[in-house]
Amino acid sequence: MVGAGGGGGSVPGAGGAGTGSGATAGQGASPPIIDDNGDGRPDCVTGIYPTTQVPRLKAREYDNTIRDLVGLTGLSASNGNAPSSLLATDQDGALSDLGWSSYQTVAGMIAAQVMADATMKAKFIACNAADAGCIDSTITDFGRRAFRRELLPTEVALFQALNNAELTETGTPDEIAELVLYGFLVSPMFLMRTELGQTAGAGAGQLALTPQETASRLSYMLWGSMPDTTLDEAADTGQLATKDQILAQARRMLMDEKARTMVADFHREYLHIQVNSRWDTFVKDEGLFPEFTPDLRAPLTGEVEMFFDQTVFGDGTFQDLLTSTSGFVNAATAPLYGLPATNLGAELSPQDLPGRPGFLTRVGWLSAYSAAFRTSPIVRGAFIVKDVLGIQMDPPPPGAAQTPLPDDPSLDTNRKRVDAQTSGGDCITCHHRYINPHGFVLEAFDTLGRPQTTESDTGAAISTTADVWIDGAARPVAEPVALMTAIANSTDAQYYYAQKWVGYAFDRSPNSQDACLVEALQANIAAGGYRILDLIADMTQAEAFSVRTVETGASP
Asked: What pLDDT, in 10s, does the model give residues 490-519?
């Protein structure tokens, strides 16, 4: 068994750990996805997925690395904006001239700001630049951190050449130091997460990562940033040579605040929480829902984010994400749950929410996945089917989204109207088998996420019973608690959650090599008691985490 306590199961030696940011998965001669059994999932194929060994830092990784390297989080020359705000958007492939120019501009801003700030300057240069040997020692010491490995003698010589007689005659020692810092920040060895070790791995065509490359994979996977001093020391003293040593570091790193940021980022992707998404743009009809104000969006989203954080770092499992009734409310959101706002302020406070298991019954998600004047069983159901259960369907036919609700007085519930709306030949299969039933169960909550038993406009009784499609079969479910339990126990939902984590951690789309790892993680989840922290740590135990292969025809 592998993992930090909790549930059983093990991660096999197959599966891929990739190279992280900017991996060119799926390009060139990468192996095809194999799905011989036709279940829509990649079949498990033993092997290491080939990826590029020189991905560029992503924007968030660049910002995090600059923060941890010199302590800078905002550019004073750019109104305090994050350094990456002036860089090109994340993308694979060759760097354009404009993209390269932006790195140079930002590096110049950073270097000047660091040298002007005593605290940040001390993170770069620990001596007086005018003292003999100071620049040389800075090159080797700071270079080890900036390049995430020791500098080669030729690299040391290149940086030392910046401290030449011609420059020292015209520039001050601090200006020379600033030039050295600039040189590091524009170096490909800083901007890229290189994996260039040439030691043969155990398998044919495999190359073992160096200890420093292993440390870099760990830190960018778990923190989205460079290794800390402890991890660097482990790499330099041979303490990252075994799976147990790697696992010990992973467990340590998951207790760091930077890991909480990474976990939050993953779940924002899982829930599609981003700028200009449903979460920060949803509105409600003021006449029908006077309780709603735009100010509600932030605490409703914050509650869901806090729920995921508390669940993961409170030793929770995937099942807890669907079944836990732990929640957070403030004075504005408590009434939406039918709770008193007494003694509550603007801050979100812990609160048990009976009858509200998991994130799909929280006011934030229910409100975001609803229309302005009514619930939306289609939107709610589609999210569950596609983003939780991982059932992928063909896109709707052109114009389907504009199909109006029928204007028929005999259809006295929203459910009946939606059922009739999606009864056309092009819609019925996907909607009536997969999408609508999940949304119909959640008709127990109105568009603001409050409990409802009758329609507000007609007074008709609302039915929440439906045959929901889970794990390849229709299952009768009577109410939301039963639906959440069914999803929590669903092998499809467990598999898709694990697949999402593997894709996020290794920065690539689902593939047959990684499918072996995903299947093992799903089996661990199904066994029960398997903490999400175990799942994250166990991804470092796959054989491919410590070795790499390259695409056919690529230079190793």
From this structure: 999 999 999 999 999 998 889 999 999 999
What's residue 205's pLDDT? 78
| Bridge partner list, 476 | 467
Kindly state the average pLDDT of the residues 332-345.
Answer: 96
3-state secondary structure of 467: strand
Q: Which amino acid is located at 337 in the chain?
A: Y
Q: Is 160 among the domain residues? A: yes
- Per mean pLDDT, which range of 13-17, 345-349, 396-400, 530-534 is the poorest? 13-17
H or E segment at 64?
helix 59-70
For the stretch 349-352, contacts whose Cβ atoms lie closer than 8 Å and that sit 24 or more positions apart, written own/partner, are: 350/326, 351/327, 352/325, 352/326, 352/327
Residue 451: DSSP 8-state: B
Give the distance from CA 475 to its chain's centroid.
31
Q: Is residue 283 part of a domain?
A: no
**497 in Cβ contact with 489 (< 8 Å):** no
Name the domain count of the chain.
1
**SS3 letters across 507-537:** CCCCCHHHHHHHHHHHHHHHHCCCEHHHHHH
Burial of 342 (0-12, 13-18, 19+ CB in 10 A): exposed
From residue 88, alpha-carbon distances to 2, 101, 219, 226 in Å are: 40, 10, 23, 21
Structural domain for 102, as ranges: 59-191
Q: What distance in Å separates the CA atoms of residue 473 and residue 486, rounded to the nearest whole number?
A: 12
Report the residue count for the chain: 556
Asked if residue 109 belongs to a domain, the reply is yes
Instruction: Find, among 357, 434, 441, 364, the residue nearest to 393 by Cα.
Output: 434
Contacts of 302 (CB under 8 A, 6+ apart): 328, 348, 364
Residue reference for tokens 């959640």: 442
End-to-end CA distance of the chain: 33
Q: How far apart are CA 542 and CA 517, in angstroms?
A: 7
Q: Would you say residue 458 has pLDDT above 70?
A: yes
* Three-state SS at 300: helix
- Over the stretch 222-278, which tens digit does the pLDDT of each residue have? 999 999 999 999 999 999 999 999 999 999 999 999 999 999 999 999 999 999 999
Residue 165 contacts by C-beta under 8 Å, 6 or more apart in sequence? none
Reported as a single tens digit per residue, the pLDDT across 273-330 is: 999 999 999 999 999 999 999 999 999 999 999 999 999 999 999 999 999 999 999 9
Could you tell me if residue 549 is inside a domain?
Answer: no
Q: Tell me the percentage of the chain whose pLDDT exceeds 70.
A: 92
With the CA atoms of 67, 70, 75 and 80 taken in that order, what torsion angle do they form, in degrees rounded to the nearest 10? 50
Give the DSSP letter of residue 338: T
Give strand pairing partners of 370. Answer: 375
